[in-house]
Specification:
Blueprint lengths: L5 E3 L7 E5 L4 H12 L4 E5 L5 H12 L3 E5 L3 E5 L12 E2 L4 H12 L4 E5 L10 H8 L4 E5 L2 E7 L7 E3 L5 H12 L3 E6 L7 H8 L4 E4 L2 E6 L8 E2 L4 H13 L4 E8 L6 H8 L3 E10 L2 E9 L7 E2 L11 H10 L3 E4 L12 H11 L3 E5 L2 E5 L8 E3 L4 H11 L6 E4 L11 H6 L4
Parallel strand pairs: 2-15, 3-14, 6-7, 10-11, 18-19, 22-23
Antiparallel strand pairs: 1-23, 3-5, 4-5, 7-9, 8-9, 11-13, 12-13, 15-17, 16-17, 19-21, 20-21
The structure holds shikimate-3-phosphate.
Shikimate-3-phosphate binds next to α5.
């Protein structure tokens, strides 16, 4: 990458202010995809401007869905029911795992062949986790040695009871989307509960779907009814500001309109266990999701332990929680999080390297890490491996060092949070 690193200065004083983070990426992908498969017209507002959701919008247009308006001002999606159109060429999912995996389930049951491609990072991520369970339903998904490009030869599928080895909302959602187009009951059992936005949205759209703990059953075929969605703020984006406000002495930061779905807010539980001065105010519902505000005030933090069961609800926040751990006291431990190695980058290796460069003592584990609290020094160059969440975690860590931190590959924040650096700067007094 030939871009100049972004330099983030230590905070000279407390952070303060009220921020509104972009709309939730997971909900946004689903609002666009599910309404594309629905009968009726949907108005979708509050979409995040990141490249990932743009990939989903472009993909659905390539599949014949008429989508008007813009991500910034709201989209109007004219649903096609369960019948999409054959695209004229490969569909580019960019950096977005959610786009590629959900589309695979959706296309497996359509009567045409389609190829999905992605950028260098996405082309290294595991795709057998969707291809294999779909094959149990009779689907034909050809991978390139387990990776993208994927060629999906769509056809009629048969219902199946799946028992998943990984708690992955992307895999679960792909199977729900295939099951929704298939005659009979498709059931999915997961080792732990993963984010449930697909289930919530499809229930609101009238699709017969049953949730029992970590198991989901969909009774197909069923065409969703279009629904309007106001996408609430992304808790994964809010987490960066929450940690920033907690670790910079004297700060008070309010984050408005955040999605408080309990399958997403594990990081709040972890921060509270560290002793965070944190208020959560639930203010209502938006599109079947609880929404509210977060207020954080800087305070002395302790340590935490996170193990397997808690990992799905904290998965995208683990890098920034590791930053909080380095700024707390005591030894924090993350276990059972091998999945982090299969994200936009190897986030275990990337987080460990970043924290060490910034002065922390960290042990890398196969499935997590141990972080010794005590503070960060800063004054280093950090390579965020082209991964948006590592770039934003490094920027938060930079606030508490003694010298600026240069972040390489920082333009990656554009996949989920264009404007992140400006919003962070805006909190300086
Ligand atoms: C997502 C699910 C999670 C998460 C990703 C978004 C989704 O991935 O890490 O950022 O929208 O379903 P997995 O399903 O692979 O755990």
């Amino acid at each position: 990458m030939n871009e100049a690193p972004v330099s983030v200065e230590p905070a000279a004083g407390p952070l303060g202010g009220v921020v509104t983070v972009p709309g939730d990426k997971s909900i946004a992908h689903r609002a666009v995809m599910l309404n594309s498969m629905a009968s009726g017209v949907a108005h979708i507002n509050g979409l995040p401007g990141g490249l990932d959701v743009g990939s989903t919008v472009a993909a659905m247009k390539a599949l014949g869905v008429s989508i008007e308006g813009s991500v910034a001002d709201g989209l109007v999606v004219n649903g096609r029911g369960l019948a999409l159109a054959e695209p004229t060429g490969p569909i580019d999912c960019g950096n977005s795992g959610t786009t590629m995996r959900l589309l695979t389930g959706l296309l497996a049951a359509q009567p045409f062949t389609c190829t999905l491609v992605g950028d260098a990072s996405l082309s290294q991520r595991p795709m057998r986790r969707v291809a294999d369970p779909l094959a149990e339903m009779g689907a034909e998904v050809e991978t390139s040695d387990g990776h993208a490009p994927l060629t999906i030869r769509g056809r009629g599928l048969r219902a199946h009871r799946h028992v998943l080895e990984v708690a992955s909302a992307q895999v679960k959602s792909a199977l729900i989307l295939a099951g929704m187009q298939t005659d009979g009951e498709t059931a999915i059992e997961q080792p732990a509960r993963s984010r449930d936005h697909t289930e919530r949205m499809l229930c609101a759209m009238g699709v017969p779907l049953d949730v029992d703990g970590s198991a989901v059953t969909v009774n197909g075929p069923a065409t969703p009814r279009a629904i309007d969605v106001n996408v609430c703020g992304d808790p994964s984006s809010a987490a960066f500001f929450a940690v920033a406000g907690l670790i910079v002495p004297g700060s008070e930061v309010v984050i408005d309109n955040v999605c408080l779905n309990p399958t997403r807010t594990g990081f709040l539980d972890v921060l509270l266990r560290m002793g965070a001065d944190l208020d959560v105010k639930e203010q209502g519902q938006s599109g079947g999701e609880p929404v509210g505000s977060l207020t954080v005030r800087a305070c002395a933090l302790g340590s935490f332990e996170i193990e397997g069961g808690e990992v799905p609800a904290t998965i995208d926040e683990l890098p920034v929680l590791a930053v909080a751990a380095a700024c707390g006291s005591g030894r924090s431990r993350i276990r059972g999080a091998r999945e982090l190695r299969a994200k936009e980058s190897d986030r275990i290796a990337g987080t460990v390297d970043m924290l060490r460069r910034l002065g922390a003592t960290v042990d890398e584990l196969d499935d997590g890490m141990e972080v010794q609290g005590g503070g960060l020094v800063g004054g280093a160059i950090v390579d965020c491996l082209g991964d948006h969440r590592l770039a934003m975690s490094a920027a938060v860590a930079a606030l508490v060092g003694r010298e600026p931190v240069a972040i390489e590959g920082a333009s990656s924040v554009a996949v989920s949070f264009p404007g992140f650096f400006e919003m962070l700067e805006g909190l300086r007094a």
